[in-house]
Every structure is written in C-alpha cells, then in structure tokens.
Design brief:
With 372 residues, the chain is an alpha/beta fold. The protein has 17 helices and 8 strands. The protein has an 8-stranded parallel β-barrel with strand order 1-2-3-4-5-6-7-8, surrounded by 10 helices.
Length: 372
C-alpha cells in the first residue's frame, strides 16, 4: 500500500466520518491483520451479524480446534455458536480498546447481534441482550437489535439500562425517526433513574443497497420513460433525508438538555454498502454519503475498492432537492417507501435467520466429525 492509497481511507476520519469494518473472523484477529487495519486504515469499529459469522465459521479451519473442544464438553450447536462468536467479539473489543479510550468512547465498538429469532419479541430481546452484555463484559461492546416495532421497545429499555445498542435493519426515514425517539426516551429514562449518560453509546444502522435492489426491480417492471432518472437514486436519497432528521434532533432543545448531562449523539451508520448492481460504482455507497458525525461500515471488498480509487469529499448534503422530491415521484409510480421499508425489514430478518440456522446445522455436523 502506498501513502496515497492509505490516505483515501484515513481522509474519511478527517471529514468527520468513522470507518468500521463489516466483517470478522478468527484469522483476522489472530494474524495481526486487524491491528494493521486499525493502524494503517483508521478502522475504528467492527460490526457482525449471523450471516458474517456463518461465512467466517463455515469456511475457515481456524475454528476447528475450538469446535472439537466444545463438542467434547457436550455443548450443542447453539452453545458452540455462542462460544465462538463471543470469543471473536471479545478479542476484537480488546484490540479496539485503545481506540475506544482515545476517542473518548465515540469509537472502538464491536457489535454482536441477538438471535434473529427474537426480532419480534421485545422482552426476550432485552433478556438476551443483557445476558450477552454480561458475558462479553467489555465497555466497547454494542448489542445489535433489529429495529422492528417490538425492537423499538427493546432499544429504549436497553439504553435505559446503560447497554450500548446498535439499532439495525433500518430501511426508511419513518422508522429512523422512531429509533431516534427510542434512544432519546431511553436516555431520559436512565437519567430519571439516576443513571449517568456519558458511558452509553448507540448507532442507527441504515441499510442501503437492498433499498435500491428492491426499488430498481419495481422500476424496471414499469418500463416507463419517467423511471430512467430515478433508478439507483433511492437509497442515497433516503439516507440523506435521514441525516437531515438527525441534524434536527441534535439541534433540538430536548437533545441539548441530554447533551448537557454528557449524552452522546446516536450516529447514523451506513450499512449494506457493497454494490449489488454492476452498473453502479463499487464505492457508490461510500462516495455519496460522506458527512460529519456519521459511520460507514464496509465489507473487505468495498474497503479495498475505496482504498484503490476512492475520492473523499463531503457529499452527504448534496442534491437535497432531488432527495426531497423522490418519495413523491416514487409514490406516483405506485411505490410507497414506508411499505418498501416494511418489506425489506421482513426480508432482512429472514436473511439473518437463514444463515444462522445454516451455521447451526454446519456446527452440528462438524462437532460430530471433529469430536470423533
């Protein structure tokens, strides 16, 4: 890597955007590669989910010894899954501890998701989140909670308990507003009960490429001339509108009161940033959404692409007239973005359940093979 390549990723930090890695596996953590990414590329956080762990554990022999030992102890596939994921997340949190302290608790977080089967059960989510929080026992852990309607209740309770929370699977501005409200209410609940706010952190993970995939497919089916200028614009427009909501929140009297007690803003985090349509730039969801006080979480291939040919500039507030007009233009074509968000949320939960169950089946078989 030469210095020009390195500066493309480092430049994001100077523009106010934190860069987190959307991937984790054992080799990354034990080979020194994670330390290199932190040192050279300015990586300041890690996110995980069941799909990432399925890919990591199923395809890497680095886990075999641990699986064999856990199987010999009599653990079942779910218990082995938890042992493996907790171990990886704990290692990553320790590697990022200096970032956590150096950024005054703004960065340095590692996200661990509750079971996707709990996405529509608020009470069970809170119990599971608290249990994982206690097991990992690291201040720079974030518990990922799908921002379903029951998830909103869980997020508020977890923030009130002082548990760092990553509200995930956001697909429209309306749900982002509700997530923001849950965060504010959780902080207010905590403050009312005598809790301190300065050690509580949260991000709101807004998913991008999946929005364009669904909307573009519907636009292609329309085959109308007025759809040609809209294709590939929806996700970025929605993200920019969500950021305007964020700015409204952090300038509100309500927020300033909480900030006076040491509260951190709940930053928007851009997720699902790998480009699905080859017609688009492979860094489109990085280039278009660089802005102050945001996080972008990149899978390794997108990070490599940006390192190679990224062009860091503040662009998050560009083309706001287009962004504001787009929901109405889509509505004329029969596309309601709130309904699009609801559909993507259901799909998103299922896309985490499927790899989770696949990994459990894989672990069941590998446990038998390795323990034997």
């Amino acid at each position: 890597m030469n210095k020009n390549d390195e500066s493309r990723l480092r430049k994001l930090e100077s523009l106010g955007q934190s860069l987190w890695l959307d991937y984790i596996d054992r080799a990354l953590l034990t080979s020194g590669e994670m330390e290199r990414l932190i040192r050279d590329d300015g990586i300041s956080g890690v996110t995980s989910n069941p799909a990432i762990f399925e890919k990591a554990i199923s395809r890497n022999a680095e886990y075999d010894q641990s699986i064999a030992e856990l199987a010999r102890r009599g653990l079942d596939s779910r218990e082995i899954y938890e042992e493996l994921t907790v171990a990886d997340v704990t290692m990553a949190a320790d590697l990022l501890r200096n970032v956590y302290h150096g950024s005054k608790r703004r960065n340095g977080y590692v996200s661990l998701e509750v079971s996707p089967h709990l996405a529509y059960d608020a009470a069970a989510t809170v119990i599971e989140a608290k249990r994982l929080w206690d097991i990992v026992n690291r201040p720079n852990l974030m518990i990922k909670v799908p921002a379903t309607r029951p998830g909103l209740t869980a997020i508020r309770k977890l923030i009130a308990m002082g548990i760092n929370t990553n509200a995930t699977l956001l697909f429209n501005v309306a749900r982002y507003r509700e997530v923001s409200e849950s965060y504010l209410a959780g902080l207010e609940d905590r403050l009312a009960n005598g809790g301190i706010l300065e050690n509580v952190a949260s991000v709101a993970s807004f998913f991008l490429s999946r929005i364009d995939t669904l909307v573009d497919r519907a636009l292609d089916n329309e085959k109308k001339i007025q759809t040609q200028g809209i294709r590939g614009k929806t996700a970025i427009a929605c993200a920019r509108l969500a950021y305007q909501e964020y700015l409204s929140v952090v300038n509100s009297t309500r927020w300033l009161s909480l900030a006076g007690h040491g509260a951190q803003t709940q930053r928007l985090l851009w997720a699902s940033t790998s480009t699905k349509d080859p017609a688009y730039s492979n860094v489109i969801y990085v280039e278009s959404l660089i802005g102050a006080d945001t996080v972008n979480t990149l899978p390794p291939e997108t990070m490599a692409a940006y390192r190679e040919h990224g062009n860091p500039m503040l662009r998050l507030n560009e083309d706001m007239n287009l962004a504001r007009a787009l929901p109405s233009e889509l509505a004329v074509l029969g596309l309601d973005l709130d309904k699009v968000g609801d559909e993507l949320e259901k799909q998103g939960v299922q896309k985490f359940i499927e790899p989770y169950e696949l990994l459990l089946a894989t672990l069941t078989q590998r446990s038998k093979d390795l323990a034997g």
